[in-house]
Design goal:
The complex is a heterotrimer of chains A (about 260), B (about 400) and C (about 425). With about 260 residues, chain A is α/β, with parallel strands linked by helices. Chain A has a single domain, classed as Putative cyclase (Glucose Oxidase, domain 1, 3-Layer(bba) Sandwich). Chain A is about 20% helix and about 25% strand. Chain A is built from 6 helices and 15 strands. In chain A, the strands form 4 sheets. In chain A, strands 1-15-13-5-7-11-12-4-14 form a 9-stranded mixed β-sheet. The longest helix of chain A has 11 residues. The radius of gyration of chain A is 19 Å and the shape is globular. The two termini of chain A are about 25 Å apart. Chain B has one domain: Thiolase/Chalcone synthase (Peroxisomal Thiolase, Chain A, domain 1, 3-Layer(aba) Sandwich). Chain B contains 14 helices and 11 strands. Chain B has a 9-stranded mixed β-sheet with strand order 3-2-4-7-1-8-11-10-9, sandwiched between helices. A two-stranded antiparallel ribbon of chain B has the order 5-6. The two termini of chain B are about 25 Å apart. In chain C, the strands form 3 sheets. A 7-stranded parallel β-sheet of chain C has the order 11-10-9-12-13-14-15, sandwiched between helices. In chain C, strands 4-5-6-8-7 form a 5-stranded mixed β-barrel. Classes of the chains: A alpha/beta (about 260), B alpha/beta (about 400), C alpha/beta (about 425). The interface between A and C is medium-sized, with 17 and 14 residues.
């Protein structure tokens, strides 16, 4: 019965039969922000300054002001973030239907390939091979591209992986995104890197296909995830509600996964 | 003829010294009040009989002479405050004498004094004048020691004075001081000790410097008839000069304003330098003593060192000089230093000595100098006094 | 002969650090004309417009003709030392700690008598000298006589070194080594004999040309420093603050927008965040510890250099928000100067004209080469000045601004 399904969930959590896994990087000034050409508008890195710390600025309390862009740290991209999604209905973080913030996770392990080639691109063939092993991606799922890139976060230079030709991080190729949207009806696509697109995606056609096709179809993105290696390929449920910012294009958020033990 | 009116009929009497102490918790008002009271007592006068007041002090702030009238309960019809340091005593005599001569006042009390506390000297020097504060003190805070070092260095090189010459004067002044009960320095000084003393600001050494202290000096100015009525011995004024900011084009000060008016001084007094029986110079440093000897006509400019070598300066010497010891051996009680010589001269001439007496002292010369505003002392003055009884 | 100073021994950590004292710092307003010129490295005296008499000490009326038309005019300082002394007993703590102190009286060829400090290489009076105006530890003008011709190690004279901020043997923090300016400053400091140069850099994942070469300079230690991150500034200050003798803030964000050319406040905010708030963070974290070391032996904390811009004086509308951020930084630097004053640490503000870098690409020459700017900074440290306007454009701009600031405003508005 649907009446007691949540009671069962609560019980399972209490008994440890369902674990809560944190897929979120800690938001700190050290976290690398997105790198953009200097002429363009810049996204703020995370910065935090005390209001008071049990001192003459406020003797009984400790609290802070912080600043960052909507796309700093582990964050959510809403369709309005990209030009291809700008005219869609319910396309901002405050209007995206909240059902999209809870969904099954399909975790596609590309960690070996990404370790060998920082510019690794996820392809349709790779996904189909994964489905052969782990089952078809269910409808309205969050597809998460596991690259273990999150483990580089303690070395910001390695995490950004920039050279004179730009950023070199793994991501999806042009066709797999269309496939996920049109053939698998995903809610969203998530990565461990800065950006749902590969570091060199500017040179794909169209440029930044994950943004272009996902947001163009009213789907969402998650970036800078971590601990994807703690999730089963299928069976986990991702919970990812962004801040309810009026007309927001995204926000840093806490991404959790419920995982059967 | 000098064109200057004489000082006939005006006399100085009732000299008083308030004993000098190194440091005092009392304010300048106390020392000045003791000087006033002392002169009144010696003269047998009541406070109300004083109708003129002349004050010099560095540490009376925030008061000047005005504040002192109410502080001490004086109602006067003539009042002056003379901020001219070591020349203030001479200038006070010139001012008060004219007031008494013209009937603007009957009896003028001239008092000068200062307190001295642990930081007084530094505070006074830090804000001594605009030029000193802006253009000298911040460069080394050497105070007058540094300023007189410049004068001494230049004088020694230009005229061949040696440290021994200055030392001879200091030793003689110390000998004179040994007989003066109020002198702060009580030990004999030898030339060897003078020469071996530690440098303060080359070429100035320890015994070239006065000791700042607290104390006061005072005397009264009145008409001769008044002094005789009171039965007071007195000294008459034969001549008096002052000059400020003399010889501004001299690159370093090697002569003072006396040189400009010395002729007038002796003409007014009707005497020659040889007629002077003793001289009290303003002696904050020995080099200034030598300059005063030159500029007051006792020898030519540059012959001072030779004059020093040829004379002896104790009260029984060939040129009795700073007969109670001068500031160098007695101490410098701030503005009182400008009246130390005046008070000692009056004592010599009225035969009421506290120190050694100059034999047959009839004519004394008192010289004043002061106010290193920037790089030279601006104020100079001199008075020739004569014993009141023939 | 001036003894070249030897590299000082390591500081004994058990001993108390000597606290800063200052020479007397009060001056009449008219005397501050001397300070204003000395701040720019110029010895100026008042000259009477009506009779030509040169005045010293500074005053309100000509001592020859009483005219009040006195104009501050640069002087070459040539003259003759005619009298001198070595002070061995001084009244103020600052000098008591530094005796013997050599002073003299100089007759300048142009007339006035000046009381001066005397360089150790000058022979006894009488002798020819050159007088210059330095800033002392109270940031006031002090006249200093130098030998007629330069002598070896002249800058290392004990008294003269008190007036200057020479980087030799000192430890320097350059806050941003990623820019051409920062790198040029590092090279110039190494050449000037700095012992240790910490070079700050933010965003390590962004590579900049020339940056790797810095590590090859033996005195250089690269340190993470992001002026937009309070914690980064605090951590670096905690680590090295107690050793920094000279801090040179080369960090700046430079864009070329006015108000209308770039919509939104984010670019202006980014400029302010580094150019103004960055300075504020640095001052709050490094200021106190540098202040406490203002008299810490031969290698005391001695200078704080701010890279401003000539645009701080009068807004250059084509780089209007950048100008405003530099103006804000200048004002804050004045505040810093006042707060550092008691410690004897000099705040030096540098106002270059446009530097030949990428954001000034569209500005016509003459533009200042980064190496020329770096040399000007090192020279300012050695000369003991506090306001520096390097290059032809800066000098031109300064002259126009001093002459008629409203006219300059109009000229810049095009």
């Amino acid at each position: 019965m649907s009446n007691d399904i949540l009671a069962k969930l609560v019980g399972a959590l209490a008994a440890g039969r369902v674990r809560v896994v944190d897929l979120t990087q800690t938001l700190s000034p050290d976290f690398p922000p997105i790198v953009l050409p200097p002429e363009l508008g810049q996204a703020w890195p995370f910065r935090i300054e005390e209001i008071s710390r049990y001192d003459d600025r406020g003797s009984n309390s400790y609290w802070n002001n912080f600043s960052c862009s909507e796309h700093t740290g582990t964050h959510f991209d809403a369709p309005i973030h990209w030009i291809s999604g700008r005219d869609l209905p319910n396309n901002s973080v405050d209007t995206v239907p909240v059902e999209q913030f809870v969904g099954p996770a399909a975790v596609i392990d590309c960690s070996k390939e990404a370790a060998a080639d920082a510019d690794f691109l996820l392809t349709v063939d790779f996904v189909k091979a994964w489905e052969k092993q782990h089952g078809k991606i269910p409808p309205r799922a969050w597809v998460l591209m596991r690259t273990d890139w999150s483990k580089r976060v303690t070395d910001p230079i390695a995490y950004q992986n920039l050279d004179e030709t730009g950023q070199h991080t793994p991501g999806p190729d042009e066709t797999v995104v269309r496939f996920l949207v049109e053939e698998r009806d995903v809610i969203g696509f998530g990565t461990e890197t800065i950006g749902t697109d590969a570091g060199q995606a500017f040179h794909l056609r169209p440029p930044y296909p994950a943004h272009y096709y996902m947001h163009g179809a009213g789907r969402c993105g998650l970036q800078c995830l971590t601990n994807l290696d703690q999730l089963p390929p299928q069976g986990a449920v991702v919970i990812c509600p962004p801040l309810k910012i009026e007309q927001g294009s995204g926000s840093p958020l806490r991404v959790l996964a419920l995982v059967p033990a | 003829m000098t064109g200057r009116a004489s000082y006939d009929g005006v006399v100085l009497a009732a000299p008083v010294t308030i004993p000098y102490v190194r440091y005092s918790i009392r304010g300048a008002h106390w020392f000045l009040s003791r000087a006033l009271a002392g002169s009144l007592k010696r003269a047998g006068l009541k406070k109300e009989q004083i109708d003129g007041l002349c004050v010099s002090s560095f540490t009376l702030a925030p008061d000047s002479a005005v504040g002192l009238t109410q502080h001490l309960g004086l109602t006067v019809r003539w009042l002056d405050h003379i901020p001219m340091g070591g020349a203030a005593g001479v200038v006070a005599v010139r001012r008060a004498a004219r007031a008494v001569q013209c009937g603007d006042a009957d009896i003028v009390a001239c008092i000068a004094g200062d307190t001295n506390q642990v930081d007084s000297f530094r505070l006074m020097n830090a804000n001594f004048s605009q030029f000193a504060r802006d253009a000298v003190y911040p460069l080394g805070s050497g105070g007058p020691n540094a300023s007189f070092a410049f004068l001494t260095d230049y004088y020694m090189r230009t005229f061949g004075a040696r440290r021994e010459d200055f030392g001879k004067l200091c030793v003689a002044q110390r000998d004179n001081a040994l007989k003066f009960p109020y002198a702060l320095f009580k030990k004999k000084l030898t030339l060897d000790e003078y020469m071996d003393a530690r440098p303060i600001s080359d070429p100035i050494h320890l015994f070239d410097c006065v000791m700042p202290c607290a104390g006061a000096e005072g005397f009264l100015v009145m008409k001769r008839e008044r002094a005789e009525d009171l039965g007071l011995p007195y000294a008459s004024i034969l001549g008096a000069i002052e000059r400020h900011n003399a010889f501004p084009a001299d690159p370093v000060q090697f002569r003072g304003g006396w040189a400009m008016d010395c002729g007038d001084l002796y003409a007014q007094a009707g005497i020659a330098p040889a007629d002077v029986d003793f001289i009290e110079t303003y002696d904050d440093y020995p080099v200034i003593n030598v300059m005063q000897i030159e500029d007051l006509g006792f020898c030519k400019k540059g012959e001072g060192p030779d004059f020093v070598r040829r004379h002896s300066f104790t009260v029984d010497g060939t040129f009795p000089f700073n007969t109670s010891g001068g500031q160098l051996s007695v101490g410098q009680a701030g503005a009182a230093g400008g009246s130390l010589g005046m008070v000692e001269a009056i004592r010599q001439l009225t035969r009421e000595n506290l120190a050694g007496a100059v034999p047959d002292a009839e004519i004394g010369l008192v010289s004043g100098f002061g106010m290193i505003n920037y790089d030279r002392g601006l104020c100079t003055g001199a008075v020739i006094l004569k014993a009141g009884r023939a | 002969m001036t003894e070249p100073i030897k590299r000082p021994k390591r500081k004994n950590p058990v001993l108390r650090t000597r606290l800063p004292t200052l020479p007397p710092g009060t001056r009449a307003r008219v005397t501050l004309g001397l300070t204003e010129a000395a701040a720019r490295g110029i010895f100026a005296l008042q000259v009477c417009r009506d009779c030509g008499t040169v005045q010293y000490p500074p005053r309100e009326a000509c001592h020859n003709c009483l005219s009040d038309r006195l104009v501050w005019t640069p002087q070459d300082g040539r003259g003759e030392l005619i009298s001198e002394t070595r002070i061995r007993h001084a009244l103020e703590l600052y000098f008591r700690e530094r005796t013997p102190w050599r002073l003299g009286v100089v007759k300048l060829d142009v007339g006035p008598i000046v009381v001066v400090q005397v360089h150790g290489d000058i022979p006894p009076a009488p002798t020819r000298v050159r007088v210059q105006a330095c800033l002392d530890k109270s940031d006031q003008a002090a006249l200093f006589a130098l030998p007629e011709k330069d002598t070896p190690h002249m800058a290392e004279d004990r008294q003269l070194r008190e007036m200057t901020c020479d980087p030799k043997f000192r430890k320097v923090l350059v806050t941003d080594g990623k820019t051409q300016i920062g790198q040029a400053v590092v090279r110039a400091l190494a050449e000037a004999g700095a012992d240790l140069i910490w070079v700050g850099y933010a965003e390590p994942w962004k590579k900049f040309a020339g940056f790797d070469e810095l590590e090859k300079i033996p005195q250089v230690t690269l340190v993470p420093l992001d002026l937009t991150d309070a914690r980064s500034v605090k951590e670096l200050s905690g680590e090295i603050g107690a050793k920094v003798d000279i801090l040179i803030n080369t960090a700046e964000l430079h864009r070329a927008y006015g108000i209308g050319a770039r919509y939104g406040t984010d670019v202006a905010k980014a400029e302010m965040e580094i150019n103004y708030f960055g300075l504020l963070r640095l001052a709050q974290e490094f200021g106190p510890v540098m202040r406490s070391r203002g008299a810490d032996g031969l290698n005391s904390a001695v200078a704080w250099v701010n890279l401003l811009s000539i645009f701080a004086l009068s807004n250059y509308p084509q780089q209007g928000t950048f100008s405003a951020s530099k103006a804000a930084a200048q004002s804050l630097a004045q505040c810093l100067r006042a707060e550092m004053r008691a410690s004897g640490v000099r705040v030096i503000n540098v106002y270059p004209g446009p530097v030949d870098d990428e954001w000034n690409q569209l500005i016509l020459p003459p533009k200042l080469a980064p190496s020329a700017l770096a040399n000007a900074i090192v020279k300012a440290l050695k000369d003991g000045v506090e306001d520096v306007y390097p290059g032809d454009v800066a000098q031109d701009w300064l002259a126009r601004w001093r002459d008629n600031p409203k006219a300059l405003e109009r000229e810049l508005a095009g």
